[in-house]
Amino acid sequence: MNRTRTILFWVATMWTLFSVAAIAASRIWFREREGRGGPIPVSQAGGLTLPVRGLLDPVRPLLESFRLTLDQTVLEVGPGPGYFTPEVARIVGPRGKVICIELQPGMLALLRKRLHARSVGNVDALAADATRLPLVDGSIDAAFLAAVFGEIPDRPRVLGELRRVLKPRATLSFLETMRDSDYVYVDTLKDLCHAHGFRTP
What we know:
This protein is an alpha/beta fold. Helix content is 43%, strand content 16%.
């Protein structure tokens, strides 16, 4: 009987500790998610291209879901240090082009260094704000934002700019993950896209 009580006591204690830890972790996560805002600092960029990320965000399968094809002009908004960019450049081929719009000059420097190290030559990396894209109307075949949309304060304006530069039958893709503190919920994302004339699957 005493042994049963001891086991129940320890189970209850462990469950209580686990519950407290889970509640604390979720409060911290939501506070960070709602409170950080803005882009990831350049000082934290190293973690965005670690090989272990390939286990969680495998590049090729994710890009295949974006339906990118040979010879396209593809816009990548907020590439950071370029986790996806070299593979996008390979998909579109030498006659295709990737245009990267990056707000932070430090990230842009890391991106260019990564591209140079991989001898990627069909990428234009531009320092610009996504709310004022330095691109001609209807000039882009496909665009994507990978875990960056939640970092943008004026999302409607960015969607308006994307609508302007995309061709009529172009594809706009988003990658969102709940591991990201700036995760945008799917329903919210769809509502914003619908409001700017985009159709979603």
